[in-house]
Amino acid sequence: MTxxxxxxxxxxxxxxxGPRLYTRLLNTFGSPQAIRSASRDDLMAHGEIxxxxxxxxxxxxxxxxxxxxxxxxxxxxxxxFSLLPFTxxxxxxxxxxxxxxxPILAYTGQLLPQxxxxxxxxxxxxxxxxxxxxxxxxxGDLASLGFTIVSGLARGTDGMAHEGAIAASxxxxxxxxxxxxxxxxxxxxxxxxxxxxxxxxxxxFPMGTPPHAYHFPQRNRLISGLALGVIxxxxxxxxGSLITARLALEQNREIFAVPGPVHHSLSKGPHLxxxxxxxxxxxxxxxxxxxxxMLDPEFQEQLEKQQLTTKDNSHLxxxxxxxxxxxxLIPLDPVSLDELISQSSYSPSEVMSILLSLEIKGLxxxxxxxxxxxxxxx
Length: 378
Known about the structure:
Strands 1-2-6-5-4-3-7-8-9 form a nine-stranded mixed β-sheet, with helices on both faces. The protein has helices spanning 4-12, 19-29, 32-37, 40-46, 51-57, 65-77, 129-144, 157-167, 189-198, 215-225, 240-250, 265-275, 284-291, 297-305, 308-312, 321-327, 337-343, 348-360; strands spanning 82-85, 104-109, 118-122, 148-151, 172-175, 199-203, 229-232, 254-257, 279-280, 335-336, 364-367, 371-374. It is elongated and about 85 Å long. Residues 307-312 have low confidence and may be disordered. By secondary structure, it is of the alpha/beta class. It is built from 18 helices and twelve strands.
């Protein structure tokens, strides 16, 4: 007897039947079995597909495809991962609203109802030190408010986004550009294991699919599709993060961008998005201003009860007034000692003493060139 999952996988294997057409047929006929049972004329007339594709749907799959489907079903049966068809009630509701949702999601870990309140954070693989720290802090702040953080498990910004959520004991989802059984990048194996404990890892690709470069733009539409909005921290003008932002716009998602130094190539992408209308983000409050009207009343109430300002500055309670004053002058980007002295109301020796105290407390760190930057506190 043919299992329901087998029917889903067999239909996915039909050449030329991508996610958009698959979803259209599902919405019309209701199930893979009904699609395969429909006549060629019905598929063309009601499914609005070509004659050649309607013909392909009724043809036996190539001999080399069936063993791959058997392997995938066996892996599911043994508990290596789960498969979630589009019509399953646990399928992410927000993802269903995009034009081309994946007909089947493979995942490890656990998807929960609260993942409906998700925000995506993306950016450069070769992120700067300030960019990495800002990403981690922003992710942690959002996760601590109850938002699930979505990213792509890539090097750089993605990893920091996942780690920030984990450090705040929040939830995070990672979307892969390869099969669910593949590990890419290999150095994130430990991070992936932690994500599976605190959220889920997802893929729309068949088991065994390698991480080809052309898979990642396709993957990016799921990152944005799962979220209320997409936050771009750092990106060059050729970055895949801008593709994610464009997809988010097509999906009617909110777009946020973090400004940076005007001369830095990694600021070019966010600055372009801001010029095009993206919301400029300096902190959590900028994001909440835009998305609170989109949230359910219960979640809005939860957010309103939290004292964001108090939380963001909770580490200041143990500092003296001089330390608080100087700390507020130090951003996540390096600032020179001379600038700090000129901006503060203290003598050079007093500023040096305060900086040493803040450094001992782990709130700032010195970088080459007598420069200082703030360290996100957890």
